[in-house]
Design a protein that fits this description.
- The chain is an alpha/beta fold and 186 residues long.
- It has one domain: Rossmann fold (3-Layer(aba) Sandwich).
- It is built from six helices and seven strands; from the N terminus they run ααβαβαββαβαββ.
- Strands 3-2-1-4-5-7-6 form a seven-stranded mixed sheet, with helices on both faces.
- It is globular, with a radius of gyration of 15 Å.
- The mean pLDDT is 97.
- The structure holds S-adenosylmethionine (SAM).
- S-adenosylmethionine binds next to β2.
- InterPro entries: rRNA_ssu_MeTfrase_G (IPR003682), SAM-dependent_MTases_sf (IPR029063).
- This is Ribosomal RNA small subunit methyltransferase G.
- Specifically methylates the N7 position of a guanine in 16S rRNA.
- It is an enzyme of class 2 (transferase).
- Keywords: Cytoplasm, Methyltransferase, rRNA processing, S-adenosyl-L-methionine, Transferase.
């Protein structure tokens, strides 16, 4: 179902690199769900996905957590068109997709998730004031960012506390060897 939807939409509006569409489930769906290995979202919580592109990590997480509200934003309207179409076709009632720049958003969230949008320092500057004061989860509200490769320089320039979670602890596929979820409390 997801594969057919994304293959069709990807023909019209490129949201996943064309050579990567065959790896949709591992490289995009499972990778997105890696966030859930690190943090289970409580029913009623609010999650923002910044720079969602075609809906990653937001759509797989919204499928997994039907009682959690997901706000998926991207600055490019046609990407949001894909997210809305996919979300409607899947019958997801917990997804709001909107064309917006992260810096201009007004809402408050429990967690802010993202993948492949910008360096963590800049990301932090965009959204540091967008979490709710009170946490309903065990950990503080904050950022859960999917990152890969060598992160030392990027994390050094952040100059904030963070926690690294290796997705290779949860998934055996080679793709996850260097993949991490970076948690930054806000
Ligand atoms: C490389 S894509 C990643 C898309 C998706 N997160 C994924 O992993 O498949 C980066 C996305 O971030 C969006 N973006 C970049 N800066 C943004 C901003 N300031 N606010 C909202 N979206 C932004 C771009 O339009 C683009 O769709």
């Amino acid at each position: 179902m997801l594969f057919d939807l994304y293959s069709d939409w990807n023909e019209k509006i490129n949201v996943i690199s064309r050579k990567d569409i065959d790896n949709l489930y591992t490289n995009h769906v499972l990778h997105s769900l890696g966030i859930a290995k690190v943090q289970q979202f409580m029913a009623g919580s609010d999650i923002l996905d910044v720079g969602t592109g075609g809906g990653f990590p937001g759509i797989p997480l919204a499928i997994l957590f039907p009682d959690v509200k997901f706000h998926l934003v991207d600055s490019i309207g046609k990407k949001i068109t894909v997210v809305k179409e996919v979300s409607t076709a899947l019958g997801l009632k917990n997804v709001k997709a909107e064309q917006a720049r992260a810096e201009q958003l007004k809402g408050e969230y429990d967690f802010i998730v993202s993948r492949a949008v910008t360096r963590i320092k800049e990301f932090h500057q965009w959204i540091h004031n967008k979490t709710k004061d009170k946490s309903i989860h065990e950990r503080d509200n904050g950022i859960l960012y999917l990152k890969g490769g060598d992160l030392d320089e990027e994390l050094n320039e952040l100059k904030k506390p963070y926690q690294l979670n290796n997705l290779s602890d949860y998934f055996k596929e080679e793709f996850f060897e260097t993949k991490k979820v970076v948690y930054v409390p806000l």
